[in-house]
Amino acid sequence: MQYRLVALDLDGTLLDHRGQIRPANVAALARAAARGVTVAIVTGRPVGSARALARQLSRGIGAPVAFAACNGAVVFGADGRRIAARPIASGVLAQALALLEAEGALAECYGLEHVYIDRLREHIRWWRSHGRAPLDRAAVTLRIAWHMVRVNRVRAVRSLPQWARQARGPVFRIFVVDLDEADPPRGGDRG
Questions:
Q1: I need a labelling partner for 72 at 20 to 30 A (CA). Which of 81, 106, 149, 175 fits?
Q2: How far is Cα 68 from Cα 7, in angstroms, rounded to an integer?
């Protein structure tokens, strides 16, 4: 049987424990691509992170790589063009964010190129409490976490529920931080 597509998750599958693409995976995928198999990445990570890893893998295997980000909510073809998108409906988004706010949880809303956040000081305090770093280093830690998932544009807004009701841009993923949570997030949702 000839396979036409190999679709891989990132964390714990394509990537090793350091977040690097395993050389054995690159070699196997290069052989598959040489036989005409399409290679794709499918991940819960935001668009920027998925795009960067798809480009890196593409260079390694010598063939274009398609990718789906935000748990499949947005899909890009091997040519890098967006071919499908299912953002969270603005009404649903506003309701979800209002519920999270009522529960005291922090949320980050991921669009195509931006992360939207409110209560930035509370996010920094949460990272500080989990990293046991001084406040200024916690802010740097948060920026590093966003950089790791290729978030280049952070937009602070007054209120995420209010922002969502105004439908300022598509959101494909909500990352939730429970302020009562004992441990920091793990896996692809490290920040």
A1: 106
A2: 9
Residue-level length of the chain = 191
Residue with tokens 């309701």: 95
pLDDT band at 76 (very low <50, low <70, confident <90, very high): very high
Final residue belonging to a domain, choices 48, 65, 85: 85
Q: Is the dihedral of CA 126, 119, 111, 152 positive or negative?
A: negative
Query: Last residue of a domain, which of 53, 70, 85?
Result: 85
Q: What is the pLDDT of residues 124-154, one digit of tens each?
A: 666 666 655 555 554 555 555 555 555 556 6
Residue 170, φ and ψ in degrees, nearest 5: -70, 140
Give the separation between CA 24 and CA 2, rounded to whole angstroms: 21
pTM of this prediction?
Answer: 0.74
DSSP 36: T
